[in-house]
C-alpha cells in the first residue's frame, strides 16, 4: 500500500509506504532533490543494501535515509516508511524547533539503526494508525495536521537516536549544531571544495576547533569526512552511470584526471579503472543469478 499526499501549490510530497514488495530506490545523477525516508523494519531481521553496501537490518528498528541514497531491502514487504521532501517539511529550517531533528539525516556520520523496544513499538503503532487516518482525510486542515504528525515522528526517533548513539558523549546542543552545519556544508560544496579551511571559515571556526569536536564525536577528523563524501559520490557515479573516470573526476572538482585517480586509489586501495571493472563484474553476476532463479 502506498498513500500519497501532494500539495501542488507548494510542490509538497508526503508518502506513506506499507508492505510494498517493490519498495526500493536507485541513485540518480540528475541533481534533482529526492525524498528523505524513515524506514521501519516491522518484521524479523533482514538485510538492507545502501549504496551497494550491505548491512544487517534488525527487527523493530527505524532507519533514516537521506535523499540521495540508494537502498534495497531484503524483505521490503515488512517495511513501513515515511517519505517527504523539503517542500513538505524542511529539516534544515525546523532543526532547532524539533530538538535537533537534523541529527537523523545530517548530524550523524554513520548509518543509524534506531532500536524500538516493545513499549516504544506500541507508541509508533498508534502514531502510524493516526497517519493512515489523516492521509485519507481530504480537507483544508490536512496539510498542517500531517506536518504536525511528521514533526512528532521525527522528534520521537531523534530522542531515541540520541540516547542510543550519543550516550556518554559530551556533546551539547551547540556542538551538535556545528556538526550538522558542517555536514550540510559538505553536502552542498563537496564537489568544489575539498579543504577543511573552507568549511571552517563558513562556520567561523578554526580547523583545530573542528578537529577537536569531531574527535569527541566519532574519532574521524573533518578532512576524512570530506574525503569519504567525495569517494561515496564517485562510487555511486561509477556504479550507477556509464561515466568515465575522467568525467567523474571533473564532476567532483578534479581538473587533473591523474590527481583524481591517485586520490581514489589512496582512499580505496584500488584504482578507479579496477573499481569500475569489479562493479561491472558484480552487476553482471547478480543479473545472471536472478535470471537463473
General shape:
globular
Distance between the termini: 27 Å
Q: How does the helix and strand content classify structurally?
A: alpha+beta
Helix count equals 10
> What is the ordering of alpha helices and beta strands?
EEEEEEEEEHEHHHHHHHHH
What low-confidence regions span 5 or more consecutive residues with pLDDT below 50? Answer: 97-101, 287-293
The helix content, as a percent range, equals: 40-55%
The chain-level mean pLDDT equals: 84
Strand order in the sheet with the most strands: 1-2-9-4-7-10
Query: Which percent range describes the beta-strand content?
Result: 15-25%
> What is the name of the CATH class of the largest domain?
Mainly Beta
- From the alpha-carbon coordinates, what is the Rg to the nearest angstrom? 20 Å
Number of individual domains: 2
- Level-2 CATH architecture of the largest domain: Sandwich
CATH topology of the largest domain: Jelly Rolls
Major sheet attributes: 6 strands, antiparallel
**What's the total number of strands?**
10
Quick description:
The chain is of the alpha+beta class and 293 residues long. Helix content is 48%, strand content 16%.
Amino acid at each position: 500500500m502506498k498513500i500519497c499526499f501532494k500539495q501542488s501549490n507548494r510542490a509538497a510530497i508526503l508518502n506513506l509506504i506499507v508492505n510494498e514488495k517493490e519498495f526500493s530506490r536507485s541513485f540518480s545523477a540528475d541533481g534533482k532533490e529526492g525524498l528523505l525516508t524513515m524506514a521501519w523494519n516491522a518484521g524479523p531481521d533482514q538485510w538492507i543494501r545502501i549504496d551497494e553496501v550491505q548491512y544487517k537490518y534488525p527487527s523493530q528498528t527505524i532507519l533514516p535515509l537521506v535523499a540521495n541514497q540508494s537502498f534495497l531491502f531484503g524483505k521490503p514487504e515488512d517495511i513501513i516508511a515515511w517519505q517527504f521532501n523539503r517542500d513538505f517539511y524542511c529539516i534544515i529550517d525546523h532543526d532547532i524547533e524539533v530538538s535537533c531533528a537534523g541529527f537523523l539525516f545530517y548530524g550523524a556520520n554513520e548509518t543509524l539503526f534506531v532500536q524500538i523496544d516493545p513499549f516504544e513499538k506500541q507508541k509508533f503503532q498508534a502514531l502510524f494508525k493516526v497517519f493512515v487516518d489523516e492521509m485519507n482525510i481530504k480537507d483544508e486542515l490536512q496539510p498542517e495536521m500531517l506536518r504536525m504528525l511528521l514533526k512528532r515522528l521525527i522528534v520521537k526517533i531523534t530522542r531515541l537516536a540520541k540516547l542510543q548513539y550519543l550516550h556518554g558523549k559530551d556533546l551539547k546542543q551547540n556542538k551538535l549544531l556545528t556538526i550538522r552545519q558542517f555536514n550540510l556544508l559538505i553536502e552542498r560544496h563537496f564537489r568544489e571544495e575539498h579543504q577543511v579551511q573552507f568549511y571552517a571559515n563558513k562556520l567561523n571556526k578554526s580547523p583545530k576547533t573542528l578537529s577537536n569536536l569531531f574527535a569527541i564525536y566519532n574519532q574521524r577528523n573533518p578532512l576524512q569526512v570530506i574525503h569519504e563524501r567525495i569517494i561515496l559520490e564517485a562510487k555511486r557515479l561509477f556504479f550507477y552511470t556509464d561515466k568515465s573516470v575522467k568525467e567523474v573526476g571533473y564532476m567532483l572538482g578534479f581538473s587533473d584526471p591523474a590527481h583524481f585517480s591517485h586520490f581514489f586509489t589512496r582512499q580505496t586501495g584500488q584504482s578507479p579503472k579496477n573499481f569500475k571493472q569489479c562493479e561491472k563484474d558484480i552487476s553482471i553476476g547478480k543479473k545472471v543469478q536472478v535470471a537463473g532463479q
